[in-house]
Amino acid sequence: MSELDEQTHRIVLPDFELHDVTKLFGHRAGVVRAVDGVSLRVNPGQRLGIVGESGSGKSTLVRLMAGLLTPTSGQIDFQGHPSTGLHQQVSMVFQDPRSSLDPRMLVGRTIAEPLLRLPLDRAGRVARVAEVMTAVGLDPATADRYPHEFSGGQRQRVAIARALAPRPRVLIADEATSALDVSVRAHILNIIVDLVRDNGLTLVFVSHDLAVVRHVCDQVIVMRAGKVVERGPVEQVYSDPQQAYTRELVAAIPRIAMGNY
Protein backbone atom coordinates (compact mmCIF):
# COMPACT_ATOMS: atom_id res chain seq x y z
CA MET A 1 0.00 0.00 0.00
CA SER A 2 1.39 3.39 -0.98
CA GLU A 3 1.42 6.52 1.17
CA LEU A 4 1.36 10.24 0.36
CA ASP A 5 4.43 12.21 1.37
CA GLU A 6 3.02 15.29 3.13
CA GLN A 7 5.95 17.51 2.10
CA THR A 8 6.35 16.58 -1.56
CA HIS A 9 2.77 15.35 -2.13
CA ARG A 10 4.22 12.41 -4.01
CA ILE A 11 3.09 8.82 -3.67
CA VAL A 12 5.68 6.87 -1.67
CA LEU A 13 5.89 3.14 -2.25
CA PRO A 14 7.35 0.91 0.46
CA ASP A 15 10.62 -0.76 -0.41
CA PHE A 16 9.22 -4.00 1.01
CA GLU A 17 5.71 -5.06 1.86
CA LEU A 18 5.11 -8.58 3.15
CA HIS A 19 1.64 -10.06 3.17
CA ASP A 20 1.08 -13.06 5.47
CA VAL A 21 4.38 -14.67 4.43
CA THR A 22 5.09 -18.22 5.55
CA LYS A 23 8.12 -20.42 4.89
CA LEU A 24 8.04 -24.15 5.66
CA PHE A 25 11.00 -26.51 5.70
CA GLY A 26 10.75 -30.28 5.68
CA HIS A 27 12.51 -32.03 8.54
CA ARG A 28 12.87 -35.60 9.79
CA ALA A 29 10.67 -34.70 12.73
CA GLY A 30 8.09 -33.08 10.44
CA VAL A 31 7.53 -29.63 9.00
CA VAL A 32 9.20 -26.58 10.52
CA ARG A 33 7.46 -23.20 10.22
CA ALA A 34 10.57 -21.04 10.00
CA VAL A 35 8.46 -17.98 9.15
CA ASP A 36 4.83 -18.09 10.17
CA GLY A 37 2.37 -15.56 8.75
CA VAL A 38 4.56 -12.44 8.85
CA SER A 39 3.21 -9.16 7.50
CA LEU A 40 5.32 -6.01 7.60
CA ARG A 41 6.19 -2.87 5.72
CA VAL A 42 9.64 -1.31 5.23
CA ASN A 43 9.56 2.28 4.02
CA PRO A 44 12.32 4.05 2.06
CA GLY A 45 15.10 5.27 4.35
CA GLN A 46 13.87 3.21 7.29
CA ARG A 47 16.35 1.37 9.48
CA LEU A 48 14.52 -1.76 10.58
CA GLY A 49 16.01 -4.09 13.17
CA ILE A 50 14.92 -7.71 13.44
CA VAL A 51 15.74 -9.36 16.76
CA GLY A 52 15.10 -12.72 18.36
CA GLU A 53 16.86 -15.73 19.74
CA SER A 54 18.56 -18.33 17.55
CA GLY A 55 15.95 -20.22 15.53
CA SER A 56 13.35 -17.45 15.75
CA GLY A 57 13.15 -17.13 11.95
CA LYS A 58 14.85 -13.79 11.49
CA SER A 59 17.54 -14.99 9.05
CA THR A 60 14.98 -16.93 7.01
CA LEU A 61 12.81 -13.82 6.86
CA VAL A 62 15.55 -11.61 5.40
CA ARG A 63 16.58 -14.32 2.93
CA LEU A 64 12.99 -14.29 1.72
CA MET A 65 13.14 -10.51 1.38
CA ALA A 66 16.45 -10.71 -0.50
CA GLY A 67 15.02 -13.27 -2.92
CA LEU A 68 17.36 -16.06 -1.82
CA LEU A 69 14.34 -18.10 -0.71
CA THR A 70 10.79 -18.37 -2.04
CA PRO A 71 7.80 -18.11 0.31
CA THR A 72 5.70 -21.21 0.81
CA SER A 73 2.69 -18.91 0.94
CA GLY A 74 1.97 -15.20 1.06
CA GLN A 75 3.44 -12.43 -1.08
CA ILE A 76 6.46 -10.14 -0.94
CA ASP A 77 6.27 -6.87 -2.86
CA PHE A 78 9.29 -4.74 -3.70
CA GLN A 79 8.56 -1.14 -4.68
CA GLY A 80 4.92 -2.01 -5.28
CA HIS A 81 5.53 -5.06 -7.48
CA PRO A 82 5.58 -8.76 -6.57
CA SER A 83 9.12 -9.89 -5.93
CA THR A 84 10.19 -12.76 -8.15
CA GLY A 85 13.70 -13.43 -6.86
CA LEU A 86 17.02 -11.65 -6.57
CA HIS A 87 16.80 -7.91 -7.14
CA GLN A 88 19.61 -5.68 -8.31
CA GLN A 89 18.57 -2.95 -5.86
CA VAL A 90 18.86 -5.20 -2.80
CA SER A 91 22.27 -6.19 -1.42
CA MET A 92 23.05 -8.44 1.52
CA VAL A 93 25.92 -8.75 3.98
CA PHE A 94 26.18 -12.11 5.71
CA GLN A 95 27.38 -13.14 9.15
CA ASP A 96 30.70 -14.77 8.32
CA PRO A 97 32.91 -13.12 5.67
CA ARG A 98 35.07 -16.26 5.50
CA SER A 99 32.19 -18.20 3.95
CA SER A 100 30.71 -15.34 1.88
CA LEU A 101 33.97 -14.47 0.08
CA ASP A 102 35.53 -16.80 -2.51
CA PRO A 103 39.02 -17.59 -1.15
CA ARG A 104 40.35 -18.11 -4.69
CA MET A 105 39.25 -14.69 -5.96
CA LEU A 106 41.11 -11.41 -5.54
CA VAL A 107 39.07 -9.04 -3.40
CA GLY A 108 38.94 -6.47 -6.20
CA ARG A 109 37.27 -9.01 -8.47
CA THR A 110 34.97 -10.05 -5.64
CA ILE A 111 33.82 -6.46 -5.11
CA ALA A 112 33.45 -5.91 -8.87
CA GLU A 113 31.41 -9.06 -9.48
CA PRO A 114 27.96 -7.45 -8.97
CA LEU A 115 29.02 -4.67 -11.36
CA LEU A 116 29.23 -7.11 -14.28
CA ARG A 117 25.44 -6.89 -14.60
CA LEU A 118 25.61 -3.10 -15.01
CA PRO A 119 26.49 -1.03 -18.12
CA LEU A 120 30.00 -0.21 -16.93
CA ASP A 121 33.26 -0.68 -18.82
CA ARG A 122 36.38 -2.03 -17.12
CA ALA A 123 37.64 1.44 -16.21
CA GLY A 124 34.28 2.24 -14.63
CA ARG A 125 34.36 -0.96 -12.59
CA VAL A 126 37.91 -0.31 -11.39
CA ALA A 127 36.96 3.22 -10.35
CA ARG A 128 33.87 2.03 -8.50
CA VAL A 129 35.83 -0.67 -6.67
CA ALA A 130 38.36 1.92 -5.52
CA GLU A 131 35.52 4.22 -4.44
CA VAL A 132 33.73 1.66 -2.28
CA MET A 133 36.96 0.29 -0.80
CA THR A 134 37.83 3.80 0.32
CA ALA A 135 34.30 4.24 1.70
CA VAL A 136 34.69 1.23 4.01
CA GLY A 137 38.21 2.17 5.11
CA LEU A 138 40.26 -0.14 2.89
CA ASP A 139 43.23 0.89 0.75
CA PRO A 140 42.30 0.39 -2.94
CA ALA A 141 45.91 -0.74 -3.50
CA THR A 142 45.01 -3.96 -1.66
CA ALA A 143 42.44 -4.95 -4.30
CA ASP A 144 44.90 -7.47 -5.74
CA ARG A 145 45.09 -9.48 -2.52
CA TYR A 146 43.17 -12.57 -1.47
CA PRO A 147 40.70 -12.74 1.44
CA HIS A 148 43.07 -14.74 3.66
CA GLU A 149 45.50 -11.81 3.59
CA PHE A 150 42.99 -9.69 5.50
CA SER A 151 41.83 -9.76 9.11
CA GLY A 152 38.27 -10.75 10.00
CA GLY A 153 37.18 -7.15 10.31
CA GLN A 154 38.81 -6.24 7.00
CA ARG A 155 37.11 -9.19 5.28
CA GLN A 156 33.76 -7.93 6.51
CA ARG A 157 34.66 -4.51 5.10
CA VAL A 158 35.28 -6.24 1.76
CA ALA A 159 31.85 -7.88 2.01
CA ILE A 160 30.23 -4.50 2.76
CA ALA A 161 32.09 -2.89 -0.16
CA ARG A 162 30.83 -5.65 -2.46
CA ALA A 163 27.25 -5.08 -1.27
CA LEU A 164 27.61 -1.33 -1.76
CA ALA A 165 29.25 -1.49 -5.20
CA PRO A 166 26.10 -1.75 -7.40
CA ARG A 167 24.51 1.24 -5.61
CA PRO A 168 21.63 -0.68 -4.02
CA ARG A 169 18.49 0.86 -2.64
CA VAL A 170 18.28 -1.57 0.28
CA LEU A 171 21.05 -3.08 2.41
CA ILE A 172 20.28 -6.22 4.39
CA ALA A 173 22.77 -7.13 7.11
CA ASP A 174 22.28 -10.58 8.64
CA GLU A 175 24.21 -10.76 11.93
CA ALA A 176 26.95 -8.85 10.11
CA THR A 177 29.04 -8.29 13.25
CA SER A 178 28.40 -11.36 15.39
CA ALA A 179 31.34 -13.37 13.98
CA LEU A 180 33.81 -10.56 14.69
CA ASP A 181 35.96 -9.82 17.70
CA VAL A 182 34.41 -7.38 20.13
CA SER A 183 37.29 -4.98 19.50
CA VAL A 184 36.31 -4.50 15.83
CA ARG A 185 32.55 -4.92 16.11
CA ALA A 186 31.84 -1.26 16.90
CA HIS A 187 33.96 -0.09 13.95
CA ILE A 188 31.97 -2.24 11.51
CA LEU A 189 28.68 -1.06 13.00
CA ASN A 190 29.73 2.55 12.60
CA ILE A 191 30.72 1.91 8.97
CA ILE A 192 27.28 0.48 8.27
CA VAL A 193 25.54 3.40 9.99
CA ASP A 194 27.61 5.96 8.07
CA LEU A 195 27.12 4.26 4.69
CA VAL A 196 23.37 3.95 5.18
CA ARG A 197 23.15 7.64 6.07
CA ASP A 198 25.52 8.93 3.38
CA ASN A 199 23.95 6.85 0.58
CA GLY A 200 20.33 7.27 1.64
CA LEU A 201 19.82 3.51 1.97
CA THR A 202 17.05 1.54 3.55
CA LEU A 203 18.52 -0.87 6.13
CA VAL A 204 17.21 -4.20 7.36
CA PHE A 205 19.48 -5.26 10.20
CA VAL A 206 19.30 -8.68 11.85
CA SER A 207 20.76 -9.27 15.30
CA HIS A 208 20.15 -11.28 18.45
CA ASP A 209 21.47 -8.27 20.39
CA LEU A 210 18.88 -5.60 21.15
CA ALA A 211 21.62 -3.20 22.33
CA VAL A 212 23.19 -3.27 18.86
CA VAL A 213 19.82 -2.79 17.18
CA ARG A 214 19.11 0.17 19.44
CA HIS A 215 22.34 1.79 18.24
CA VAL A 216 21.73 1.17 14.53
CA CYS A 217 17.97 1.17 13.90
CA ASP A 218 14.92 3.37 14.33
CA GLN A 219 12.27 0.62 14.10
CA VAL A 220 12.35 -2.94 15.37
CA ILE A 221 10.39 -6.16 15.14
CA VAL A 222 10.84 -8.98 17.64
CA MET A 223 10.50 -12.54 16.35
CA ARG A 224 9.82 -15.77 18.17
CA ALA A 225 9.10 -19.18 16.62
CA GLY A 226 8.65 -17.64 13.19
CA LYS A 227 6.16 -14.98 14.28
CA VAL A 228 6.43 -11.26 14.93
CA VAL A 229 5.51 -10.84 18.60
CA GLU A 230 6.26 -7.13 18.98
CA ARG A 231 7.07 -4.15 16.78
CA GLY A 232 7.50 -0.40 17.02
CA PRO A 233 10.04 2.40 17.35
CA VAL A 234 13.21 0.93 18.81
CA GLU A 235 13.39 3.30 21.79
CA GLN A 236 9.76 2.55 22.67
CA VAL A 237 10.25 -1.22 22.48
CA TYR A 238 13.50 -0.96 24.42
CA SER A 239 12.13 1.24 27.21
CA ASP A 240 8.58 -0.11 27.44
CA PRO A 241 8.35 -3.65 26.02
CA GLN A 242 4.81 -5.00 25.93
CA GLN A 243 5.52 -8.72 25.59
CA ALA A 244 7.11 -10.92 28.24
CA TYR A 245 9.51 -12.36 25.66
CA THR A 246 10.72 -8.87 24.69
CA ARG A 247 11.14 -7.98 28.35
CA GLU A 248 13.39 -11.03 28.72
CA LEU A 249 15.54 -9.86 25.77
CA VAL A 250 15.83 -6.37 27.23
CA ALA A 251 16.64 -7.71 30.69
CA ALA A 252 19.42 -9.86 29.20
CA ILE A 253 21.30 -6.83 27.84
CA PRO A 254 24.32 -6.07 30.04
CA ARG A 255 24.01 -2.48 31.24
CA ILE A 256 27.63 -1.85 30.17
CA ALA A 257 26.91 -3.01 26.60
CA MET A 258 25.72 0.34 25.30
CA GLY A 259 29.04 1.90 26.22
CA ASN A 260 30.72 -0.23 23.56
CA TYR A 261 28.74 1.31 20.66
Concise structural overview:
This protein is of the alpha/beta class and 261 residues long. It has nine helices and twelve strands.
Please write out the topology:
Layout: E1 3-4, E2 11-12, E3 16-27, E4 30-42, E5 47-51, H1 58-66, E6 73-78, E7 81-82, E8 90-93, H2 97-100, H3 107-112, H4 122-135, H5 152-164, E9 170-174, H6 182-199, E10 202-207, H7 210-216, E11 219-224, E12 227-233, H8 234-239, H9 244-251
Parallel strand pairs: 5-10, 5-11, 8-9, 9-10
Antiparallel strand pairs: 1-2, 3-4, 3-6, 6-7, 11-12
Tell me what the structure shows.
With 261 residues, the chain is α/β, with parallel strands linked by helices. The protein has a domain at 101-167. The chain is 33% helix and 27% strand. The chain has 9 helices and 12 strands. It has helices at residues 58-66, 97-100, 107-112, 122-135, 152-164, 182-199, 210-216, 234-239, 244-251; strands spanning 3-4, 11-12, 16-27, 30-42, 47-51, 73-78, 81-82, 90-93, 170-174, 202-207, 219-224, 227-233. A 6-stranded mixed beta sheet has the order 8-9-10-5-11-12, sandwiched between helices. Strands 4-3-6-7 form a 4-stranded antiparallel beta sheet. A two-stranded antiparallel sheet has the order 1-2. Residues 256-261 have low confidence and may be disordered.
